[in-house]
Amino acid sequence: MNELMKLVEAEYANVRANYPNFKAGDTINVHVKISEGDANKVRIQQFKGVVIQRKNTNTNGETFTVRKVSNGVGVERIFPILSPNIDKIELVKQGQVRRARLYYMRGKSGKAARIKEKKSHA
Amino acid sequence: MAGIIGKKIGMTNIFQTDEASTKQVACTLLQVGPCVVTQVKTKETDGYNALQIAFGEKKEKNTSKAMLNHFKKANTTPKHRLVEFKSFEVGKYQLGDVINVNDIFNEGDVVNVIGTSKGKGFQGVVKRHGFSGVGGSTHGQHDRQRHPGSVGASSFPSRVFPGLRMAGRTGGKRVKTQNLKVLKVMSEQGLILVSGSVPGANNSYVLIEK
What we know:
The complex is a heterodimer. Chain A is mainly beta. Chain A contains two helices and five strands. Chain A has a five-stranded antiparallel beta sheet with strand order 4-3-2-1-5, with no helix packed on it. In chain A, strand 3 (63-70) and strand 4 (73-80) form a beta hairpin. The longest helix of chain A is centred in the first third of the chain and has 7 residues, at 3-9. The radius of gyration of chain A is 16 Å and the shape is globular. Chain B has one domain: Double Stranded RNA Binding Domain (2-Layer Sandwich), CATH 3.30.160.810. Helix content of chain B is 10%, strand content 41%. Chain B is built from four helices and twelve strands. Chain B has helices spanning 43-46, 65-73, 101-104, 125-129; strands at residues 3-17, 22-32, 35-41, 50-57, 79-85, 98-99, 110-116, 121-123, 168-170, 174-186, 191-195, 205-209. In chain B, a hairpin with a 4-residue loop joins strand 1 and strand 2. Chain B is extended. The termini of chain B are close together.
């Protein structure tokens, strides 16, 4: 990327630094700010699920997709990583996967939709 | 209206928050100036008032002697792009003056950006003029999904009207994008961030008029 472009994007570096380093296959808990009516009334909603992809990484346009199964219905949410509406991100579980984009999760349910947990080498 | 020469750096996006909502805005980073005034045209000598300004370093060996002396008069190094603007305030700038970003642009300004669009080569009417094509591949159609259709009719007019839109060279032309908002001015680096896209490839010269 152009050096000058980095100057513009560096503005958001601290936003990124606040978040844990997560990958596809990890389970995360995203705390989303939701404003009701006027802007002063803000509450936090949690969206917990498996990260199935990170797109356009290391640019201002980076997004990640979180998938969860809610009442038997698969729900996916796409978040821009620099969105001011994200309060915080918690890393719940690290998964061991072989792919960067877990589209195959969409066709699976129940036991088949499990992801192996990553062994820590500590 | 004043204008300045710049360079397209590339695109990115930023988040803008106002009272009601937060928006992700696509924007283009432009390097603007510093431009040097290389000629001041006046009504007495040239018949009209204008400023010729220059931008972009150029090697001396690639510059003709005539142009070298032209730059020498303004006490500056050879430059790539020379553009004349009629819209500057008369008498504000003298020969050799340097025009910077913050002389012209403020945050919130609305600007037009002129550039040369990316060349697309020889293209059909669907891409070039936005024709919708035939619209289907059944009902007797064969091999003509993206064709222009009839152009000259039969006994009347029995010819093709001049100027009819047809396939041909596309892009590579001067294009103006109007009403782009200046989101940010970084005067130290000589950069401005404008909303939306501007014509041309990265690192190509653009004109920015206010």
